[in-house]
């Protein structure tokens, strides 16, 4: 049994397996974040029971269930793929931390960010063009309810890195290295942490 399967069993969910059934040039395939990376993120100190996580492109909900279980934060997963959304909802019914997690079927470009969200996770769910629209929604939410908002970018693409470096509303906080967690590393196994400012 793999570590991913073991954690799925502990959490009472099924999240393994890649899904690119309706991926295209702007919305990318579902690939679950490795649990070893999520363990490092959970131990980073950035998540507590007072935080609410927004997970863009949540897929089957792994990030949400794990962090809700480990840190007691609340989590909101949004997903545009109806099949993945259905799997996330099915997982929620039996998940250990299901009561702390909610899911919404919606395109990220159309999602209004709730005032309680103060942590945001991305694992390259969509193109930079959609990311720009997401940033506008985050800015609108921040302007309506000023608060600390931290953004977490796992395994960022070169396009994401270029955008993040040029985005004046973001300031870098930390890079959480994760390359040591894998037998082979290409240098992208890291979580970039940014603070949102307007």
UniProtKB/TrEMBL annotation:
<dbReference type="InterPro" id="IPR025714">
    <property type="entry name" value="Methyltranfer_dom"/>
</dbReference>
<keyword id="KW-0808">Transferase</keyword>
<dbReference type="GO" id="GO:0008168">
    <property type="term" value="F:methyltransferase activity"/>
</dbReference>
<keyword id="KW-0489">Methyltransferase</keyword>
<dbReference type="Pfam" id="PF13847">
    <property type="entry name" value="Methyltransf_31"/>
</dbReference>
<dbReference type="GO" id="GO:0032259">
    <property type="term" value="P:methylation"/>
</dbReference>
<feature type="domain" description="Methyltransferase">
    <location>
        <begin position="50"/>
        <end position="126"/>
    </location>
</feature>
<dbReference type="InterPro" id="IPR029063">
    <property type="entry name" value="SAM-dependent_MTases_sf"/>
</dbReference>
<protein>
    <submittedName>
        <fullName>Class I SAM-dependent methyltransferase</fullName>
    </submittedName>
</protein>
């Amino acid at each position: 049994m793999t570590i991913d399967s073991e954690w799925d069993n502990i959490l009472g969910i099924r999240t393994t397996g890649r899904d690119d059934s309706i991926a295209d040039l702007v919305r990318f395939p579902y690939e679950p974040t490795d649990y070893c990376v999520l363990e490092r993120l959970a131990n980073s100190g950035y998540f507590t029971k007072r935080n609410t996580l927004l997970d863009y492109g949540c897929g089957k909900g792994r990030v949400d269930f794990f962090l809700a279980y480990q840190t007691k934060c609340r989590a909101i997963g949004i997903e545009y793929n109806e099949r993945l959304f259905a799997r996330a909802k099915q997982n929620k019914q039996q998940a250990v931390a299901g009561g702390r997690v909610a899911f919404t079927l919606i395109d990220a470009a159309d999602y209004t960010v709730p005032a309680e969200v103060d942590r945001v996770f991305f694992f390259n769910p969509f193109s930079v063009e959609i990311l720009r629209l997401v940033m506008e929604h985050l800015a609108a939410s921040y302007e309506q309810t000023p608060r600390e908002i931290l953004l977490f970018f796992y395994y960022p693409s070169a396009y994401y890195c270029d955008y993040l470096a040029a985005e004046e509303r973001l300031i870098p906080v930390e890079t959480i290295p994760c390359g040591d967690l894998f037998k082979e590393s290409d240098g992208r196994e890291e979580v970039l942490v940014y603070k949102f400012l307007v």
